Amino acid sequence: MQAPLFALVLSVFGLGTAESVIAGLLPQLATDLDVSLSQAGLLVSAYALTIVIGGPAVTLATSRLPRKPLLVGLLALFVAGNVVAALAPGYGVLMTARVVTGLGHCTLFALALITAAEIAGPEKSGSAVARIIIGVNLATIVGVPMGLLLAQHWGWRATFWGVTVLTLAALVATAVLVPATPGGGGSGGVAAELTVLRDRRVQVALLLTVVGLAGGYTAFTFLTPLLERVSGFEPRQVTVLLFVFGLGSLAGGVLGGRLADRALMGSLTALLAGLTLALPVFAALAGHRIAAVAAVAVFSILFFALNPGLGARVLNSVSGRAPTLAVSMSIASVQTAIALGAWLGGQVLDLGFGLRSVLLAGAVLTCVGCAIAWAEWRAERRPAGRCRQSAPRTEAPAGTVASGPLG
Fold it and tell me: CA–CA separation, 261 vs 60, rounded Å?
């Protein structure tokens, strides 16, 4: 991996760890801060809501700033927020620290994706996006367990100090290794960023992100109770299976990046079709342990292979214009997909259907996502064929960020 990409992956690794590790700290936080478990849980939802609502606003407010100084500044804000969290004397201060760090999350992630794509070049934008997303996967597999280990030995404050050290290292690496790239101040500011959102291709790309990922998150949210109550695994065995799921997410990220470089919309259509088939098969075989293990692996690979292509689709839809708000909205769309998936799965259970039905509900959404992706793929291939008949044409390589229709 190129040194600049390593610095960006390290930054996203810190973001992902800070976002996810707090869920495992809730019992400690509730006891130490003398609040209920549900109040402690608001530290998770407040962070997500800050990303969805405040993230795009911060992106707009900083749209004219040069990209590299903005990256370094947001990392500095993230470091400061985690220092405040580690020192927080009470619940209110900790909540404030979470909101402050959440404000920078969306824009920082968006800048990392855009900068990585520019560093890698147009033909490798999908792989570059995949590497950045792998930073999030590593946070789940490595960062969160390490953070919880710190909390078990030295308390929850040690976890925030660990995140502080990690993001401080990312700040230094970014300042030293990441080159200054065009963008920010020369992008046209707020007007240019908002204009991009009026593009139908960008709107459809964001819709595809919400619908396609929500189907997977419907299943993923209730994966643990499914494996325990339907498949019959003990909690210790489920922990091992979740590690298998994490490894599958890494493999899926690499696979998805390579497929996006080759045929962007074609690969997204195929992956969503595969997921639509895999979820009902998982539901049917969930009662058989060996089959369930295989189904977990297949599900994780297909699900996480979507992420690089969806991110690259948004970047390509921008076509060289002001991209930061569109990518920021894409990140907010992922958070929306998580919330929508959890809500849908909960509704299915509240209606009295079993855990297997949650997988079927997820398959309905991925089927809708597949239809959207197929329609876009077909629409983009049809004009290309007509152009070839009427005039000579130079084909752009698949995955080109600043070109026209892809895949």
Answer: 29
Per the structure block, which two tokens stand in for 123? 């033909």
Distance (Å, whole) CA 22 – CA 98: 10
Q: Are 198 and 192 in contact (CB under 8 A)?
A: no
- Any idea which residue has 């560093």 for tokens? 119
Task: For the chain, report the end-to-end CA distance as a whole number of angstroms.
Answer: 25
Question: Which two structure tokens, joined as six digits, stand for 245?
Answer: 């799921």
What does the alpha-carbon distance between residue 68 and residue 271 come to, in Å, rounded to a whole number? 34
What is the amino acid identity at position 55?
G
Q: For residues 360 and 280, is the Cβ–Cβ distance under 8 A?
A: yes
Per-residue CA distances from 90 to 25, 35, 95 (Å): 15, 10, 9
pTM for this one?
Answer: 0.73
pLDDT tens digits, one per residue of 155-206: 999 999 999 999 999 999 999 998 876 555 445 567 777 777 788 888 999 9
Question: Average model confidence (pLDDT) for the chain?
Answer: 83
To the nearest 10°, the Cα dihedral for 192, 110, 51, 300? 130
